[in-house]
Amino acid sequence: MTETFDALARDDVLRTLATWRDEGRKAAIATVVSTWGSSPRPVGSQLGIDGDGNLVGSVSGGCIEGAVAKEALEAMQDGEPRLLEFGVSNEQAWEVGLACGGTVRVFVERLEG
Amino acid sequence: MRASTLDAILVAREAKTALAVVTRISDGAQCTFDGASADGPLSLSSAQIEEVSDRMRNDRSGTFDDGALFAHIYNPPLRLIIVGAVHIAQALAPMAAITGFDVTVVDPRGTFATEERFPGITLNDDWPDEALEALAPDGRTAIVTLTHDPKLDDPALQVALRSPAFYIASLGGKRTHSGRLERLREAGFDAAALARINGPAGLRIGAVSPAEIAVSILAELTAIRHGQSAVRAAA
User: Fold this and answer.
1) In terms of Cα–Cα distance, which of B132, B78, B139 is closest to B106?
2) A:2-31 residues touching chain B, CB 8 A cutoff
3) Tens digit of pLDDT for each residue in B26-39?
4) Interface residue of A25, A35, A107 to substitute, partner B, most B CBs within 10 Å
5) Which of A70, A71, A48, A47 lies closest to A59 in space, CA to CA?
6) Domain chopping of chain B, boundaries
7) Which of A60, A73, B32, B54 is least enclosed by beta carbons within 10 angstroms?
8) In this predicted structure, what is the pLDDT of residue A2?
9) Three-state DSSP state, A54
10) Mean pLDDT score, A30-38
């Protein structure tokens, strides 16, 4: 049962990222920095992405993780941080499915080795 | 993010101390701030330090300076102290842990507070008042008494009421609760102090089983944690 707590505990994302880094894998962190209206995850929620596209944590209810991961893989390559915005006013948001009436801004940065 | 920044966050979590990471959105430059000093390539003005300190006190991550900076507040988990290693506690402790609380169960009766009944939960077998004084509840601590036994609940509540705990609740029906309030009044607590006790503990959701009662208590605790103080009056 302790393992269940750990798996659900909020520090799981950062611990996993540290493990990936220590294994020499490329990694990036996506963080919800602001939200408007109804959004599924609060500010500070994080998604970890490794170079193979493995995910840990979440920045939405599953709607935008794929799009965020794509940007994260690019950030791992060029080292440039990115600020992504998803919302009903954004064409891309419909494509990726954040149709819950909210807007969310996600900051994506590479984790340095 | 630099490797050293990630390590600093993990070290602070392990030590259960607060840490803020401030990011300049335009280029990703960062610094950490532990409440006293900042460390890292991003330098902050005194006004920005004040803003971050305020956010640490209020547990509020977010952007500021017109969205130019983002403060990520990594505060230690909220604490829940449960007095009484009873059946309801067996449900409430793991549920609260999943919700993100650092849970301690206090019960001097050795047969109740066992690792077998509470796997992975911190147990304390001191007398409740001594245990609570040692745990020093602060404004990020919740306290729930579940024993029904005045010998155990009352001393715990006396310490709880002298602390800034953000949630204090006590299990027991209306009669039990009014008797409890009467004893605490005689012990010198005024009406304002007694009004801090959420009693009988939990929202009225028709809970019957121990697990359901745990849900009702955790629901009330969640509501108060997020400032929904009117929820009780509406119940």
Assistant:
1) B132
2) 2, 4-5, 8-11, 14-15, 17-18, 21, 29, 31
3) 999 999 999 999 99
4) A107
5) A47
6) 3-74, 79-234
7) B54
8) 45
9) coil
10) 89
Position A46, amino acid: Q
Tell me how close the Cα of B53 comes to any Cα of chain A, in angstroms.
17
Quick check: A83 and B10 CB within 8 A? no
Whether B100 and chain A come into contact, CB under 8 Å, resolves to: yes
pLDDT (tens digit per residue) in A52-67: 999 999 998 777 899 9
* Interval B131-154 mean pLDDT: 95
* CB neighbour class for B15 (10 Å; exposed up to 12, middle 13-18, buried from 19): exposed
Q: What is B79-234's CATH number? A: 3.40.50.720
User: 37-76 in B: which are within 8 Å (CB) of A?
Assistant: 61-63, 67, 70, 72-73
What tokens does B179 get?
């008797």
Burial class for A77, CB neighbours closer than 10 Å (0-12, 13-18, 19+): exposed
pTM: 0.75
